[in-house]
Amino acid sequence: IAGITQAPTSQILAAGRRMTLRCTQDMRHNAMYWYRQDLGLGLRLIHYSNTAGTTGKGEVPDGYSVSRANTDDFPLTLASAVPSQTSVYFCASSDSSPSDTQYFGPGTRLTVL
Amino acid sequence: GQNIDQPTEMTATEGAIVQINCTYQTSGFNGLFWYQQHAGEAPTFLSYNVLDGLEEKGRFSSFLSRSKGYSYLLLKELQMKDSASYLCAVRDGDYKLSFGAGTTVTVRA
């Protein structure tokens, strides 16, 4: 079934370590997004990419970086993880319909100790 | 920044109707979305409103008033599987999506 995959499903990470969360979509969507979801705060946009080769900062970009080398992949990197980055991370992509609806991957649960 | 408010929790009985309200203040407006999220799962798209009025899709309906910065999601004939969190999201003038914190709906038998 076509859609968005994320890896890993969950990860426990020591503070200071580098970590890359992977996201791949096979729907040929131009735009992709990374969100974090924390209890009581809802989903917050970290970074986005409107098309391959371009990226932009969202609401909470500090401590994260992204790249978009091709249409399908949009990895999120934590250069030096800190405990405040403990969260559930969702990748999303949007279609080209008039509503530009975003579709979400299954998420990665990250714990930084 | 964006300000999107929705109630934290609601409880209703199986077969009943529940209305989840959402108020928003954003820089520009390019549509309002409702998503459903079951515990431990990804958000899934429910509805989209860009013009004032009611959009009906089976047991779920969504209403928008742009002048009042207000929307609601109406869930009819509630089923146990409707127990989930419902997220209101607004797309602003820069076409970025901002989410409310979500409303957890519990359906009781």
What's the SSE blueprint?
The complex is a heterodimer of chains A (113) and B (109).
Chain A: E1 4-7, E2 10-13, E3 19-25, E4 31-38, E5 42-49, E6 56-57, E7 64-66, E8 76-78, E9 87-94, E10 102-104, E11 108-112
Chain B: E1 3-5, E2 9-13, E3 18-25, E4 32-37, E5 44-49, E6 53-57, E7 60-65, E8 70-75, E9 84-91, E10 97-99, E11 103-108
Parallel strand pairs in B: 2-11
Antiparallel strand pairs in B: 1-3, 3-8, 4-5, 4-9, 6-7, 7-8, 9-10, 9-11
The number of helical runs of chain A is: 0
Q: How many β-strand runs of chain B?
A: 11
> How many DSSP-defined strands of chain A?
11
Oligomer: heterodimer
Order of helices and strands of chain B: EEEEEEEEEEE
Which labels suit this protein?
heterodimer, A: about 110 residues, mainly beta, 7-stranded mixed beta sheet, 4-stranded antiparallel beta sheet, B: about 110 residues, 6-stranded mixed beta sheet, about 55% strand, globular
Note down, in words, how this protein is organized:
The complex is a heterodimer of chains A (113) and B (109). With 113 residues, chain A is mainly β. Chain A has strands spanning 4-7, 10-13, 19-25, 31-38, 42-49, 56-57, 64-66, 76-78, 87-94, 102-104, 108-112. In chain A, the strands form two sheets. In chain A, strands 2, 4, 5, 6, 9, 10 and 11 form a seven-stranded mixed beta sheet that branches. A four-stranded antiparallel beta sheet of chain A has the order 1-3-8-7, with no helix packed on it. Chain A is globular and about 40 Å long. The mean pLDDT of chain B is 95. Chain B is mainly beta and 109 residues long. Chain B has strands spanning 3-5, 9-13, 18-25, 32-37, 44-49, 53-57, 60-65, 70-75, 84-91, 97-99, 103-108. Chain B has no helices and eleven strands. At the A-B interface, strand 5 and strand 10 of A face strand 5, strand 9 and strand 10 of B.
